[in-house]
Structure formats: C-alpha cells, structure tokens
## 1
Amino acid sequence: MQTTVTLLAATGIDLDAYFANFDANFSLSGFGAFSNMSTFSGDYMGTSGDAEALAFLVDGDLGYQFSNHHVDGTIDTISFGTDGDAVLNTETGLFDLSLGSTDFTIDFTPDLATADGDDVHGLVYDLMSDGTAPEGNTSTLVSLLDLTGVDLVGSAGNDRFNGTSADDHMTGGWGRDVFYGGQGADVLVGNIGNDRLFGGAGDDKLYGGRGNDLLRGGAGDDILAGGKGADTFVFRGSDLGVDRINDFTVGLDFIRLSASDFSGFEDLSISEQGGNAYIDLGDGDGILLAGVDADSLSAGDFQFV
Ligand SMILES: [Ca+2]
Ligand SMILES: [Ca+2]
C-alpha cells in the first residue's frame, strides 16, 4: 500500500504537533455527518463545533451500524482542516461534505478496506471518539502510517516531519523544511529553501535542492547531494557508515565534524581513491567526495564544532 500525505497549509505543517493538537482539542460535535444520513453511509465528516474549529473528512464508502457502533467499508482519503460544512444536495438527496480550509490530506492506494483486513473501524472510530475523554485521537491512524511508511509532499511553507520506522519519501516545497527520516531507507528532498535533512538510521538518500541546506545522513551508508547553494554536510557521533557526497563544491560547501573527534584539518586522513577524495573517519567510517581532487581540499572546507 502507498500512503501519500500532502501538506496544503500555506504556512507549513508540523505533522506531529498537528496530531498532538488534534488529540488534545478535537471534540466531536453531535454524531458528525454522513453523506447519506438516511442510511449513515458514504463519506463521513466529524466537526468540532464552531466554524473555526478542527474538522476531518473521510472520503470513501463507509457504513455505520448503530447496534454495535461499528464502522466498516473503504477509505480513499482523509482530510484534516477547519470549517466543516454539510449541505443537502436537493438533486441527489445526499449531503455534500466539505472543509472550508484543508491543512493536509492522506491518500491510500489502494483504498483501505475492511474486507482486506484493514482497521477501518479503529481508524475512523478513534477520530470520532475512542469512548474516553478527550474524544477523538489519531493513534490508529499514526500506527497505520508507521506500518506502511509515508510519501510526504511538502507545502509552500516551513514543514516539519518525523518519518516513520519504515521507508519514507519526503519532498519539501518552498520554505525552510526540517525532515527526519528515522529508521528505514529514506529519501529526503529539501527542494527550495534552506532545509535541514536528517537521515537517521538506515541507508538514506538526501537531496538538499536549492538554498543553503544542512544534510546529516546519520548511521548507515548514505548518499548526499546538497544541490545549489552553500551546503553543510554534518558527520557526528559513531556508526556513521561510509557516506558519499555527489556534489561537494570546494570553496562553497562545508563538511562539519565534531571538535571532540578531530582537532583540526591537519588531524584528518584524506586520500585519493579512483579520482575521488576519501576522508577516513576511523572505525571503518568515511566520506567519499565524488569527483573531488583530494589535494584541492583545505581547512576552509571544514568546520569543527
Ligand atoms: Ca523512515
Ligand atoms: Ca542514514
């Protein structure tokens, strides 16, 4: 299954903070609304009372049984935002459900389906009400994202995303994005803006894009590319693996090392390896600078912090 999270809020989204705020403040108004209110089926929207308050919209084909308060069916997309509205369509006899403002959407391909063993009930019922105060929580949704990994599409603003333990793929839009891959083989693309990318554990691929970016692959053998701008590549801690920087520009980009591990440029072991510069960090760890002449590197290309 592919799970795509598309961030839409103009100012950017910190998804973990958003979920925490939803869990703390969402309180279902009434029973919410189904697109077919005579059979309690179709799409479903939960609102939190007044117009500016939190709301979520489930686009799919759900069914609600009052006898046991059980939800089943399929989910295509869940949208989070504010200003939910249900308007009776006199032609179809169904309610048109919409959010006045959408902060982000989560698309499932293929659709989540009760028939496929997916926890459609848990997901929707937790969002509506888990039966205990405070009503509404994102725990089932978050654990589902962690199961599949996430394909994140950033907004025009400053986004922040902590990746799941699975393989994630994050692409920032404009803005100063901060992405953490976490575990798994992640692909992080900063795109436009001065971004900060942290691969975490696993063999990750980090691409800064335009702007002055900071890239830190973390553990594992990572592949890094800063893109345009003056980029800083950070190598700190143990178990760094053998990383490769594909576009290190001498005199423009920086390699940042720990001052507690290296006293200065003279302390580094730099050699030529098949037309590339190789910096030996000890313990089998190292940095390969693709296409860089080892002799061209000087103290000005390094930071010891
Ligand atoms: Ca991950
Ligand atoms: Ca890594």
## 2
Amino acid sequence: MNNDLPTLDRRTVMAGAGALAATALAACGGRGDNESAAAPAPAPAARADGPTVLAKTADVPVGGGVIAGDTVVTQPSAGVFVGLDSTCTHAGCRVGEVAGGTVNCRCHGSKFALDGSVVAGPAQRPLASRTVRVEGDSVVAG
Ligand code: FES
C-alpha cells in the first residue's frame, strides 16, 4: 500500500494535543486571568427530602443577586425572585458576579440585566431562565 501521508510518532501527537488544550483554555480565559475558575460559586444545598435550596431570601439583595452553583438568583424588585442559568450565552463561561445591578461575565465582559436580558455584549442572547420559587425563607429550585 502506498501511503503518502506523513507518519506521526507518539511525541508529535501528544505535543499537538497539549497545544490544543492550551488554545481551548486561552479561548475561554479572555484576559488570561482565569477569574471564573478561581472563584467557583458555592453549590446549592441539596436536600434529600425536598427541593434544592439555592439561597436564603435575605441573602439576595434587592436590585442584585447571588450565584448558587449553576443558577443565578436575582431580586429585581422587592419580593420578586428570578432564576437564570449561569452559563454565559456568548461562549459558555460561567458568569462570575452580580454587581452594579447586572450579572457579569468576566471572560469577555458581557453584562446581563437582572431578568437575564443582554445589557452589553459580546453576548447576543439572554441568559436562559431557571424556575425558582420562594419556600419559607429560602429560594428553591423548581
Ligand atoms: S463567555 Fe464571552 S462574555 Fe461570557
């Protein structure tokens, strides 16, 4: 059999895989500071006998919000709680903070209103909704 393709030894293949991994990490890091990975959001408290508690209502500021695992809980106005998926619709980073009245992605600077709509790009689509409800003194999933 005539094979005109170059042969790759194991070392060449592994070096290529490393370069791909570095490129993938840099693509999400944006500014190279990897802030999203440095400060993971606390995971919601799972309860075996009931809904998953995302946050205490008292811990969600009016006009702000908190990030609980893969859910952002905001309170645009007193007593109104909104659940949003924390995955940025630009390139898939987890949003890093709720500050200044917006949900902010540190990867490339997208900002979302407390209802998930886009305030500033590069994201073009709103954050996906997550169903949340108040149960007692807590905001729970579902
Ligand atoms: S992933 Fe690019 S701004 Fe969020």
## 3
Amino acid sequence: MLHYSITPSDLHAHLFSVSLEISEPASDGVQLTLPAWIPGSYMIRDFARNVVDLRAEANGQPLKVTSVDKQTWQLAATDGPVTVHYQVYAFDLSVRSAYLDQYFGFFNNSSLCLAVQGQADRSCTLAISLPDTETPWQLATGMPRQSGDQFGSGVFTAGSYEELIDYPVLMGQLAIQEFIAGGLKHGLVVAGHHYGDLGRISGDLAQICEYQIDLFDHQVPFESYLFLTIVVGKGFGGLEHRNSTALLCSRKDLILPGKQTIDNDYRGFLSLCSHEYFHSWNIKTLKPREFIPYRLAAEQYTRQLWFYEGITSYFDDYVLHQCGLIDAATYLQLVGDTIARVQRSTGANRQTVTDSSLYAWTKFYKQDENSPNSIVSYYAKGGLIALCLDLLLRRDSDHQVTLGTVMRDYWLEYGATGKGTEDESFASFVEQKYSVKLAAFLERALYSTDPLPLNELLSEFGVELSHEVAADDNTIGGKPASNNIPVALGAKYKASPQGLELQTVYNGEAAERAGLSAQDRIIAIDRLQVTEQSVKEVFDRYQPDQQVTVHAFRRDELLSLKLVWDKPRANNRVLRVKRPEQLKGWLNPKR
Ligand SMILES: [Zn+2]
C-alpha cells in the first residue's frame, strides 16, 4: 500500500509538505523517482529540482537516503514500513507543475508525488489538507474521493501512479459552477481574481461538451469532468487530463455579465476548453502506441503528434461553429489565420510535420528567434491536414463520411480497446472501413514539405482562398487588411518608444539582406528616429526597391546598414464563401 499526504505548509515560502508511507518496501531498499516531464507537454522539466529536504524513516529511526541522479533517491534496505518526508517548492504559474501562495494553490501530482520503483501499478491513496486561512479554502480535483465533503479536504484514490499524476488539484477560494452535459456532471472551477459570468460561460461550455459527446456517439471516457481554471492578468495555457483539464487564462478572457457578443478573447477561452475536452478522446484514450505506457524519466518520441494536436486543433474551433457560437465568417477567418501562419514561415518548406512531432522536445517546445525559418508547428499544419482530411472524406464518400465519423469509429477501434495507434494506422483504417483512399494524400502531407491542396479542396466546398497583402510586417492572418504600408521589412518587430526590436528576421528578405538580426533594435531610418509612434509614418515615405540607411543597436554596438525595401508580400490568407450551396453541411452559412 502506498499512501501520500500533501499539506500546503508554507504559503509565503510556496512550499508543499509531502509524506509517503510505503507499507511493503522492496527487500533491497526502495528507489524513488519523480518524472522529468508531464504527459501532454513534451519537454524535459526535471520536476525533481524543486524537491527540498528529503528524509526517510523506518521503525521510528532515520533511514539512510542516497541521491542517485537528478531525479532518483535510493533508500537503505529495511524490513518494516518506510515513511518519506520532503517539501516541494511550488512557484511555477503554469498548468504543468505546481504553484502555491496565499491566494491559491495548484499542483500536478507529477510534481509532488514520488514514484516507488516496482510499485507503479499499485493503487494508492492521497490525503490532501487545506491551509488554515481566514476565509476557508476549497479544493477541486477529478481524483475519486474516498472521504471528506465535496470540495473539502479529504482522502482520494488512484489505481496506479500513471493515474495519480493525471489528476491535477486546484485549491483556494474557488468559484464553482456545475452543469450537466450529455447527462454527466461537469464543473467550471475558477481560482484567481476574476469578473467572469460563470453562469453564461458554463452554458456555452455545456453546448461544446454536448456536441463532442454526440460526435463520439455517447461513448465517453469519464464519468464527470472539471475545467480547473486559474485566472491571471495575462496568461494562456491548457493541459489535458483523463477527467479534467487545467487551464490558465487572462482575466479579460472570461466574458463579463451582461455582454452578449463573443469577442476574440472569450472565443479563445472557449476554443481552449473545446480543445482540451476533445483531448479526452484524442490523446488521453486514443494515443500513440509509443505512449503505452508513458516512460517519464526521459524523452518519449513519436511522429504522431501532428495527428493528436492537429485534429484536436481542427475540432476546437470547428465545434464552436457547429454549436452556433461563432458564425461561418468568423470560423473561416480563424482558418485563414492558421493558413497564413503556416505559409508565412519558411520553416514549412524545411521541416515535415512528422519531424516536427518527433523533435517537439528540442525544437517546438524550445522555440527561438529562428524557429519561423526552421520549423513548422505540428499544431497548425496538423490542423490544416485535418481540414483537408475532413473535406477529402466528405468529397470522396459523397458526403456520407466526415472526419467526425471517422474519429468516432477510430476511437472505438484503437482508443476504447487501449491498442494505441501506429504511424500508418489511420490511412489503412479509413481505406478498409469506408473505402476512401487517403494514403497518397497523407504520404505527401506527412513526409514532404509540399504545399497542402487547400485551394482546390476549399474551392470544391464553395470557399475561395485568396492571398492578400497584409497591413504590415507584424499583422498577418485571415482578416482582409486596409491601409497597407507600401514597403516590407521582412521581419517581425516589437515597436516601443525606444525603436523597433526585431523578433524574427525572415530568411532572404530585406532585413536579413541588409545584415539585421533578431534582437537588433532599429532606432533610425535615413537618420530620423523611428518609434512605436512614428513607424507607420516613416514606412509610408518609401517605395519598394528604394535604399535607405538604417541605424540599429546590436547589444550596445551601433550598426549603420544599407537596406533595400521589399515589396509587401501577399501574406494574408482570406477565405470567403462564394457558393454556399457547395458547403453541404461542412459549415452552416446561416450561423
Ligand atoms: Zn492539445
């Protein structure tokens, strides 16, 4: 038996105290480890670096602990039960690790609970205490409860270590709004200072959940579900779990009472919720065979993240449209944003989406100023591949089969059974089950950097995709631009009163040809100062191919360079419904 106890012991020092009782330690001594990463976020994070002051005891006596490596401890052999005590420093305000202060606490058990080697398959119990605060705290988690009142402290159970670390916990003065979707209990739980209309939000969430439950034909891999939400001034993130999701959002993302229209911020929050909820099927149960089981001590590679993140990204906004939360024009603008983002990066010509998946650990999760020149996002391009798949399936099955239909059947075959998927499973499944041939399309889409057949497919569904000039180097997307500046710098920049700080310099374009690099700060063009205030006025003076003198700082060194302006490129991707009768149920033009 394994029993963990977690106490938020020092809110000001951001410390959780943890104890672990091991009733049957291995005869040659217990080995303890903490994961290096958390499923769903493919980066080595070395959670053990936050463990402080680890001690062990047996029979009332201290037991010798030897540190083995960055995340492993070896306890001396003993015959009786062993108890381990340690603290964990928790001040990472993200959904991936742990956080604690006097206002709220959040943790993943992968940051707090040591795994006992050889006992990962055993069930365990976890007692969680709440701190002694002036206004009482509550706690919310999807972990099955053994004792204690709903949202109070108590004892929880998990069937294995992998299950234990899939139940994040949120604590504090929580705002809780429960709702029913698909006949199942759901809850929106919010920690942090917020002004959101939780009644309205949970109503919108109920529609999203209901739609997805219907899409999977009421085969639901959980009995209840929680949206555990941390609200901050500025933040964004989500991590999927088996019967909950941990979300981080900005205060302005939660719609205010009395507001009717769904603005971009709130739409983004609903998309995030829709995305993480869809993952309950697509990665939490249907998953790459390489992830069965997870091995959390080091990187675990797969070429399939494009499928799990791409298809999920496709459905997140698509479900919003199908629920009537966003109209067809808004939906198409979001698709245009994604196409523009993928096609703007020269990295899309240099990395395949399967390689992007494989190198998630070192490239996608460790992006730098050169990433747009060297990598493609498996989320964004994966989402566009999913769009193509949906349209191809509809077209080639005479509108009988959709990507939604396939996901339901595929989930039953490879997810509900626990089989897991291999690189080629999807194409062969679709061909066998529906006689739709996808192999040739997928071969090109996944293993080459050839452009996707977006124009052709969208056009067959009555939608025209046009390449249009963007307003400036910074604003590209799916929205038609007005007031374009006449020249292009070929760099993304952040304008401030101090100048233009270059964030990305695109290969082969004006800024790079002139010798400018990311992080350079342009302070003057033709010896006149350029700032946030004057940038448009300055750029408006010039014509493509004209040469100017640029002064910029690189670190503390002043550069004087000759720059020849580029012609503005058609970087926007604008989608318009031209022949609504051809949409055939893919989109609803009346919404
Ligand atoms: Zn995701």
